[in-house]
Amino acid sequence: MTLGSDDYAVATEWTFTAAAIVVVALRISVRLLYHRSWPNKSDIWVLIGLLLNIVLVALYTWSSRLGGTGLANYVVTEQDEIILLKISYVSGVIWDIGLYMPKFSLLALYYDVILIVFRKLRMALHVITGFIVSAALVTICIDLFWCTPIPSNW
């Protein structure tokens, strides 16, 4: 098997994922070793986002191996095509959920930083949180239910 453009794309994605793992590991290690405290809510959202990214890149790698990511002359069986469509469906949802993890992490940080005594600022934070949560739910629902019945996607 020769090294094609799909392989370079997969290698690049895993390289960026490895860099993200290093950055998040450094963030958590500073929290544990320097501050001597457990990860806070903001760290948890970042960890969830990282895990979703790892799953997403693994799905992309699997899809690439089945021949579903490039324009090369792959011979894809009907069973592989069904698997590729299912991977595409699941990865869209994982992408959308992972896209909101940094937003939730920043919101958690703002809830720690903005004290209750700042009533107007705290109220604005609640409004922004409501907007972001509702946008996340709408985005995820659109991805999940864009075609009914769901099995008609494959």
UniProtKB/TrEMBL annotation:
Q: Which UniProt keywords apply?
A: Membrane, Transmembrane, Transmembrane helix
- Identify one Pfam family in the record: Fung_rhodopsin
Cellular component terms, GO, for this chain's entry? membrane
Subcellular location(s) of the protein: Membrane
InterPro entries (alphabetical): Rhodopsin_dom_fungi, SAT4-like
PANTHER family, alphabetically? INTEGRAL MEMBRANE PROTEIN, PTH11-LIKE INTEGRAL MEMBRANE PROTEIN (AFU_ORTHOLOGUE AFUA_5G11245)
Name the record gives this protein:
Rhodopsin domain-containing protein
Protein's organism: Coleophoma cylindrospora
What broad taxonomic lineage does this protein's source fall under? Eukaryota, Fungi, Dikarya, Ascomycota, Pezizomycotina
